[in-house]
Structure formats: C-alpha cells, structure tokens
Amino acid sequence: MKNILKIIPVIFLGIVLTSCSSVRVAADYDKEAKFAQYKTFAFFKTGIDKAEISDLDKRRILRAIESELLAQGYTKSENPDLLVSIFTKSNQRVNVYNNTWGVGGWGWGGFGPGWGWGWNQQPTVSTRVEGKLFIDLIDAEKKELVWQGMGTGYLSQNMEKKEARINEFVSKVMEKYPPSME
C-alpha cells in the first residue's frame, strides 16, 4: 500500500508534464501578399546566422522547414520567391510547488497504529526551458516580411527526443501557412 501512495504523485506529475508538452502557435501575415504566387524558396543565411542556437539545432530546424515546404509543393531554388529565416528565444521557467499535504502511511503513532495526514515542509522545485521558434517568410523580390509563424513550448534536453520535438514545433507552426484568406 505504501508503494501505491508513492506512485500517485509520480503519475500526477507525469500527467501535468504531458499536458504542458504541446506547442502553442500563432501566425501573422501581410494581407496584401499574394501567397498563391509563391512557388520557390531558399534559406536567408544572414538571418539564420543570427539565431542564437547551436549549428546542430539550426540544421535540424532547417531540415524540418524544408521538409514541410516541399510537402506543400514548394521547390528549393537559387532564384526563390520566398526567403526563409528563423529566430529563437528561450526562457528558463522555475516552478515551485508548495502543496505539502499528503497521506501518511501505516505505522505507530502516539495513539497506536493507523493512517494519518502528513505535512511535508519541503517544497518541490522544478526547472524547464521554454522556447520560442519564429519562422519568417520574406518576399525575395520586395525584401519584405510577408508571413511569420511562432511556436512556443517546452524544449527537450534529451538528445533522442530533441529532433522529434523540433519537428513537432516546425510542423505545428507550418500548419498555419499559407494563411487562409477567408
């Protein structure tokens, strides 16, 4: 029974962490842009070089964006209609949980054996990195931003999960492109 009571907080924490794992997205665009005319793309090296992340993560993001655009029917070109740039931000979030009430286990107390309520004086502290990925699409001819998508969510430090998380970020953001012109 004592083991079951130890597992309950772990299950609760797992539910909380997985419920926060989704990527929140937003997009903005130029209402005057003719998105149907864009057929080709290239990466805007000057903008990408300014992104403050590792070169490995840049390549992961660019591969994911390229895959999404190719799936939408775009072609990579030396003379593109659209230039693709990225920008990133990250914040470390510290969460302090002061929920210190709990159920006591079976044992001997001042009044004999039994169950009881417990009080834990130690708060639980956790830190996570929340990241933002901005994907900018620039009209190559006018050199003007025509679409910007942003994804916000928690990042994975686990190397096996990192690429999948980056793909999820990019996929969710690129779902907003092209904008519906209703």
Which keywords apply here?
182 residues, alpha+beta, Double Stranded RNA Binding Domain, 6-stranded mixed β-sheet, two-stranded antiparallel ribbon, 4 helices, 31% helix, elongated
Class by helix and strand content?
alpha+beta
Detail the poorly predicted runs.
Answer: 10-20
Rg (CA only): 24 Å
**Portion of residues in helices?**
25-40%
Could you state the oligomeric state of the chains shown? single chain
Spatial order of the strands forming the largest sheet: 1-10-9-4-2-3
Per DSSP, the total helix count is 4
Beginning-to-end CA distance, first to last residue: 58 Å
What string, H for helix and E for strand, traces the elements in order? HEEHHEEEEEEEEH
| Number of strand segments | 10
What's the domain count? 1
What is the CATH topology assignment?
Double Stranded RNA Binding Domain
Second CATH tier, the architecture: 2-Layer Sandwich
Can you summarize the main beta sheet? 6 strands, mixed
State mean pLDDT (0 to 100 scale): 81
Estimated share of beta-strand residues? 35-45%
Give the C-level CATH assignment: Alpha Beta
What is the overall silhouette?
elongated
Could you explain the architecture of this structure?
This protein has a single domain (23-100, 117-174), classed as Double Stranded RNA Binding Domain (2-Layer Sandwich), CATH 3.30.160.670. The protein contains four helices and ten strands; from the N terminus they run αββααββββββββα. It has helices at residues 2-19, 45-49, 55-71, 159-174, and strands at residues 24-29, 40-43, 75-76, 82-97, 101-103, 107-109, 112-114, 117-119, 124-139, 144-154. The strands form three sheets. The chain has a six-stranded mixed sheet. A two-stranded antiparallel ribbon has the order 5-8. The chain has a two-stranded antiparallel sheet with strand order 6-7. A hairpin with a 2-residue loop joins β6 (107-109) and β7. α3 crosses α4.
